[in-house]
Amino acid sequence: MLKEDIQAAVDRGELLPLMEEFYTIQGEGFHTGTAAYFIRVGGCDVGCHWCDVKESWNAELHPPTAIDAIAGNAARFSKTVVVTGGEPLMWDMAPLTSLLRAQGMKVHIETSGAYPLTGYWDWICLSPKKTKLPVGDIYGHAHELKVIIHNRHDFVFAEEQAAKVNSNAVLFLQPEWSKREQVTPLIVDYVMNNPKWRVSLQTHKYLNIP
C-alpha cells in the first residue's frame, strides 16, 4: 500500500497506529478488578509531564494496523474492550467501535476529551487534563470523571470539571503514581469531606500486571 493510501485509511479510521493490545484486569476507576482487553492507540499531544506511557505520544512510532485485525484479536479474549492511549480521539473511532460492538463486545474508552468525541461507546471515562481541556459535548456523555491528583491545586481543578459533567457521571480522584505517598492521604481526607467523590487507585501497578 502506498504511503498516501495508508494515510487515507488512517484518516478514515480503517487503520490505527496500534501501540499495544493485551488482556488484563482493569486497574482504575469504576470497573476496577474486572477483566478487559486493552487496545492502546498511539498519538497524543496533551503533554502530561507525569505520563507513564510517553512512548505512546509519537503516532509515527506505531504501525498503522487494520481494525479488522484489532477487533478479531479482542474477540478472542474478552467481552469488554477498553480503548486507551495516547489519546484515542485523535483518530476516528467510529469504524473500530462499530466492528467491536457488532461482535457483541462492550466498548469502553479512556480519554482526556481533548478531541471531538467519535465512536459508539458503552462507557466513557473522561480524564481531563489542564494542559488541553475537553472539547465539544463529551461532558454530557461521560459515565465517569477521573481526575488525577498531583498537587493540592488539582482538587480545585477537579471541582471545576465535576461542575461540567452530567449528573449521572461517577466522580473519581486518583493519585498520580509518583506522588502517591504524598497525595493519597489528601485524597482520603477530601473524599471523606466531599463524599460525592470516590477514590481510584492504579491497582494494576500494585498487582504488577499491565
From TrEMBL:
Where, in this chain's numbering, is S-adenosyl-L-methionine bound? 50-52, 86, 127-129
Q: Which cofactor does it need?
A: [4Fe-4S] cluster; S-adenosyl-L-methionine; Mg(2+)
Keyword Acyltransferase appears in the UniProt entry = no
Q: Which PROSITE patterns match?
A: RADICAL_SAM
Instruction: Extract the InterPro entries matched here.
Output: 7-CO-7-deazaguanine_synth-like (IPR024924), Aldolase_TIM (IPR013785), rSAM (IPR007197), rSAM_sf (IPR058240)
Q: What is the main EC category here?
A: lyase
The cofactor binding remark recorded in the entry reads:
Binds 1 [4Fe-4S] cluster. The cluster is coordinated with 3 cysteines and an exchangeable S-adenosyl-L-methionine. Binds 1 S-adenosyl-L-methionine per subunit.
Which molecular function terms from Gene Ontology are attached? 4 iron, 4 sulfur cluster binding; carbon-nitrogen lyase activity; magnesium ion binding; S-adenosyl-L-methionine binding
Q: Which E.C. number(s) belong to this protein? A: 4.3.99.3
Sorted keywords for this record are: 4Fe-4S, Iron, Iron-sulfur, Lyase, Magnesium, Metal-binding, Queuosine biosynthesis, S-adenosyl-L-methionine
Q: Domain named Radical SAM core: which ranges?
A: 31-210
Q: Which reaction does it catalyse?
A: 6-carboxy-5,6,7,8-tetrahydropterin + H(+) = 7-carboxy-7-carbaguanine + NH4(+)
Name the residues that bind substrate. 25-27, 40, 84, 210
SUPFAM superfamilies (UniProt xref):
Radical SAM enzymes
* Functional pathway: Purine metabolism; 7-cyano-7-deazaguanine biosynthesis
For whether the record's keyword set contains Lyase, the answer is yes
| Residues that hold [4Fe-4S] cluster according to the record | 44, 48, 51
Q: Which residues form a coiled coil?
A: none
Could you say which protein family the record assigns here?
Belongs to the radical SAM superfamily. 7-carboxy-7-deazaguanine synthase family.
Record PANTHER family = 7-CARBOXY-7-DEAZAGUANINE SYNTHASE
Assembly and binders:
Homodimer.
Q: Main role?
A: Catalyzes the complex heterocyclic radical-mediated conversion of 6-carboxy-5,6,7,8-tetrahydropterin (CPH4) to 7-carboxy-7-deazaguanine (CDG), a step common to the biosynthetic pathways of all 7-deazapurine-containing compounds.
Q: What is this protein called?
A: 7-carboxy-7-deazaguanine synthase
The coding gene here is queE
